[in-house]
Fold these 2 entries.
Entry 1:
Amino acid sequence: MHVDRHYDVMVIGGGSAGVIAAIQAGRAGAKTLLIEKTGLLGGTLTNGGVNFPGLFHAWGRQVIAGIGWELVSRSVAEAGETLPDFTDYKRGHWLLQVRVNAFLYAALSDEAVVAAGVDILLHAMPAALTEARGGDGWDVTLCTKTGLTTCHARVVIDATGDANAASLAGLPVVIPEETQPATLSCLASGYDIAQLDLATINRAFDAEVKAGRLDYTDASWDTTAANVGAWLGQRGANASHVHHINARDSAGKTRLELDGRGRLLRLYRFLRRQPGLEKLDIAHLAPECGVRETAIICGKRTVTAADYCSGRRWDDAVCYAFYPIDLHTSDGGGLRVAPLSEGVVPTVPRGALLPEGSRNFLVAGRCLSSDRLANSALRVQATCMATGQAAGAMAALSAAKGVDPEEVPVVNVHALLREHGAIIPE
Ligand SMILES: Cc1cc2nc3c(=O)[nH]c(=O)nc-3n(C[C@H](O)[C@H](O)[C@H](O)COP(=O)(O)OP(=O)(O)OC[C@H]3O[C@@H](n4cnc5c(N)ncnc54)[C@H](O)[C@@H]3O)c2cc1C
C-alpha cells in the first residue's frame, strides 16, 4: 500500500476527548495527526451546542485537571467570566458545570493543538483501517475533499464518540438496541417569558399533540405532558428529545438531523401562532444534533454501574470520573438520575480504553468500554477529556518505545500525565 505520510499517533475525531488526546501526544513529543470530519474542533461541546462541561470537581475538591481543565478555564478567563464556587457542592450538579463560550473553546483548541506541533486535517474521515505489514501500527485511508490519501500511524486513537475507527478496524463494538434520545439545541429569542400565558400555550400545545401534529418531546424531555415552558425557559438549549435513531453511521446521522430540524420547524410554526411569541426567532442553531449514545467498544476491561457507583479503584486506573448516573429515556419524564453516595469518586481503568483483541489501538471519550448505566455517567465532557489525555499519553509512550499501549508500565503513564497537570487516582 502506498503511504503518503507517517505518524507516531493518529487521533480520529477532534471532539471533547480527541482534542485533548492530540495535544497530550504532541506535547509528549509524538508526531501526531488529528482528523476531524467537521470544520470545527470541540465536538459535542461546540457542534452539539453542549457548552457546559462537567464535572471537574467532586465533593468540593478537584478530581479532573490537566489539558481539558486548562482549555476550559482559559475559555472562561479569556471571556472575563468567573468559575462556579465548587466548594458549594450540595447544589444541583448542573450548577457546578462550567459554562464556556463555544467560539472561544474552539479557537483556543486550534491554538493549543497547533502549538503542540500536531498536524490537523479537518473535513476528513477514515475510509479504511488496515493493520500495517509487520504489525507496527495502522495504515489509515482517509477520505479528503479531493480524494483518498493513506497515512501510517504507530498508534491510532478512536475519539469519534461512535467507535467508528474501531468498527473500521474490525474490532468488536456493542450497539445497544435502544439508545438514549438525542437533542437539537438552539438559541431562541424575540420574547419575554414573564409576559407569556404559559397555561394557555400549554393547552394549545396539548391539543396539537392529541391531534398528532406535535410531540410532547418537541418542547421538553417529558413524554407524558405538555411543558412548553421548559423549552421557552431554556431558550431551546438542551430542551427537546429526538428518539429511536442510532446515529453511529452517516445514514443514521442523516435521519437524526432531519428529524431534529423537522421537530424544531413544527414547534417554531406552532409557537409563532401563540400570543406574545409572534416575533420568536431562532437566533442560533447547533450545527448538529447532540448525540448521547451510539456504540461502545468491547474493552479489555468494562466498567459496570456497580464498579462506577461503588467508586472502584482499578489497579490500572488512569483518571477519575464524576457525574450522577444520568440515563435519558424515551418514556416517562425522560430522565433517570441517581446521584453518587457522598465521598464516592469513580475511576476509569486503562483496560476500558483498549479494545479486546487490538494492538496499537486506543479509544477515548464516550465510546469507552462500560455498561449502559455506567456509560450514562462516564460520557460527560470532563471525563471524556481525562480519558483523552490518558489515551494521548499512552499512545505517545507506546509509539516511543515501540510496544503496545498495554505494555507501557502504568507508572510511566501516570508520571507523564502528572507532568502535564493531570490528577491520578490514589
Ligand atoms: C444534549 C446533550 C447534553 C449533554 N449534557 C452534558 C452536560 O450537561 N455536561 C457534560 O459534561 N456532558 C454532557 N453531555 C455529554 C457530552 O457532551 C458528550 O458525551 C461528550 O462531549 C462526548 O465526547 P467525545 O469526545 O466522546 O465525543 P464528541 O465530543 O462528540 O467528539 C467526537 C468528534 O469526532 C468527530 N467524528 C465523529 N465521527 C468521525 C469520523 N468517522 N471521522 C472523523 N471525525 C469524526 C465528531 O465530529 C466530533 O468532533 C451531553 C450530551 C448531549 C448530546
Entry 2:
Amino acid sequence: MANIFDKWHESLTKTRNVTFGRIANFFGTTEINDDSWDELEALLIQADLGMETTSSIIENCMEKVRKQGLTRTEQLYKLVKEELINLLDQPEEPDLSAEPTVIMIAGVNGSGKTTSIAKLAARYKNMGKKVLLVAGDTFRAAAADQLEIWSKRVDVPIITSNPNSDPGAVTYDGIKSAIARRMDVVLIDTAGRLHTRYNLMEEIKKVYRVADKALPGAPHHSWIVLDATTGQNALQQAKAFQQAVDLNGAILAKLDSSAKGGMAFAIKRQLNLPILYAGLGEGVDDLQLFDRNAFVDGILER
Ligand SMILES: Nc1nc2c(ncn2[C@@H]2O[C@H](COP(=O)(O)OP(=O)(O)OP(=O)(O)O)[C@@H](O)[C@H]2O)c(=O)[nH]1
Ligand SMILES: [Mg+2]
C-alpha cells in the first residue's frame, strides 16, 4: 500500500511546507524542557489547531513523557503524531445497503460538488454498484451539461433537468426512476449556494424533504463538500448547511491544492462531522477514503 501513502504525501506538499513542516522540524536532539513545550505549543496554535486542542495535546504528551521517562524532543515526534491521529475519525466506506441508497451532495459555489459526485460514481461503480446521477443543480445554466459529460465519461446513467426547473421535481423523478430501474446508489448534485442566501437555503431543505417523499428514509446520506483551500471560512458555511439539512459527513476537496489541510482537525472539532473522503486531484480516480494515518504522516513527514 506504499502507493496510497505516496499519493497522500504528494497531495499534502503545500500543507506540509507551509504549516506543519515547522512542527516536524521542531523535533530534534535537544532536551525536552519548559522552552521546548512553549515552542511546541506555539507551533500547534500557529497550525490552527485551536487553544483547547493544543492544550490537551501538550498535557497528554507531558504525561507520557513523564511516564516513559523521555528526554529528547526527537522522542516526542511519535507522541505528537499519535495525538493528531486520535483527533480525527477513521471512516469506513459509508453504508450503501439501502436499495437504492440516496446521497445528497451540498456545499457553497465551486467547492467541488460535481467533480466529487463523478469521483463517487466511479468509485461505487467499481464496487459493482449500479449508480444513477441526478442533475439537481437547475440554477447554473451549464450545470446539467457538466454532470452529463461526467456521466458519459464514467459511463453511468443520469436524470437530467432543464435550467430553472424545480430541483425538487428532478430529485423526485430521479429517485422514482432509480427505484423502477433497481439502481443501487443515487447521487444528487445540488446547486452551489452561499450559506447566507435565505431562499436558496430554504430550497435545499425542500430538496431534502422531497427525497423523503419519493422514498421514505431518503436521503440516507447528506454530505457537504468543503474546499480545503478556503480554510476556516468553510467552517462557518458548513454550520449553516448543518442547520438546514441533516449532514452526516464531509468530503474535503482540493487537499492537493491547499496549504490549509489542517482544517481537517477543525472540521472534527467544530462541526463534529467525519471526513469521509478527500479529493487529492481533479481526475476521476483522485478521491480517497479519508485515511487519518496517511494524512497525519503526509503533513508531518520530515
Ligand atoms: N485540484 C483539485 N481540484 C478539484 C478537486 N475537486 C474539484 N476540483 C476543481 O474545482 C473546480 C470546481 O469543481 P466543481 O466540481 O465544478 O465544483 P461545484 O461545487 O460543483 O461548483 P458549482 O456547481 O459551480 O457550485 C473544478 O475546476 C474542479 O476540477 C480536487 O480534489 N483537487
Ligand atoms: Mg456543480
